Amino acid sequence: MKRFLWLVVLGVMLLAPAAVRAEYDFGDNRSVTLTTKAWDALNKGDVEAVLAYTNKCLELYGEEAKKMQATLTDYPTGSNQEIFNYWALNDVGTCLFIQGQAYQKANMNEEAKAAYRKAVDDYKFAQAWDPKGWFWKPAEAAKEKIMEIDTGVSYDFGDYRSETLTGKAWSALGKGNLAEVLAYTNKCLELYEGKAREMQASLKEYPWKSKEEIFNYWALNDVGTCLFIQGEGYKRAGKTLEAKKAFNRITGEFSYAQCWDPKGWFWKPADGAKEKLAEMQ
Asked: What is the pLDDT of residues 52-61, one digit of tens each?
């Protein structure tokens, strides 16, 4: 019955857009305004409002977003302003993710997957700004939500930062949950391995001058650490071949990674990996 009612709501919104427009305040109709209103509606659990704001954003800016997407072969990088220059792409991709979230909360999983897939297929290089100070990727988050719907298994990747994923991987290792370890470490590798390789290639020795300098190599540090966590997870599970592969990747590909210990010092995952490999001989 709940699904039927929401389908009725959706049908009304698609067939009578003028009536829907009259009920909602679209403000200045800018994409950022519509996206913000969609987030607010999602937080309030107002699915109808989410659809109103996200569909308006798609209606007004979908084509411009596709043009921006067509100019790219990868995620835009550089300064925040350079990424913000792709405003239509970013907001349309984000609105589709919000729309998917709204459908998912209403147990309309097929509609949710359709919205998520559109974000992945048509606007995959969109980036969303988190007010806490970083960008995240709606298409990557959408892929995870599709998997969540299909498998019934859900992992909380938080803000998708490498630091967050590494912290969650450590917690999963402490619980002895290999599936979680692999989910968080593989997500970190998926998102940040390329950047980690760039940082590794720029070095001829371990950074050492200051804590700040070492932290500047954040992607290298977290990817190397995640591989160590992954190797240790496999080792504890008795999966020796997989453990050796993970440890060998650290020594061969990310040898200058360093990991901060909350007790107040850095340690080197490559050295730890060598010790673990020796133990398994």
From this structure: 999 999 999 9
Contact, 212 vs 249, CB < 8 A? no
222 close to 191: Cβ distance less than 8 angstroms: no
Kindly tell me if the per-residue pLDDT of 15 is higher than 70: no
SS3 state at 28: coil
The answer as to whether 39 is a domain residue is yes
pTM exceeds 0.85: no
Q: Given the DSSP bridges, would you call strands 134-136 and 259-261 parallel, antiparallel or unpaired?
A: unpaired
pLDDT range class, residue 8, cuts 50, 70, 90: very low
Confirm whether 156 is domain-assigned: no
Question: What whole-number distance in Å separates Cα of residue 113 and Cα of residue 150?
Answer: 9
Domains identified in the chain, total number: 2
Rounded CA-CA distance 120/154 in Å is: 19
Whats the size of the chain, residue-wise?
Answer: 281
Longest C-alpha distance within the chain, in Å? 72
- Whether 17 and 129 map to the same domain: the answer is yes
Over residues 186-227, the pLDDT tens digits come to 999 988 999 999 999 999 999 998 999 999 999 999 999 999
Handedness of CA 136, 194, 278, 274 (dihedral sign): negative
With contact defined as beta carbons under 8 Å apart, do 55 and 46 qualify? no
CA distance 165 to 108: 29
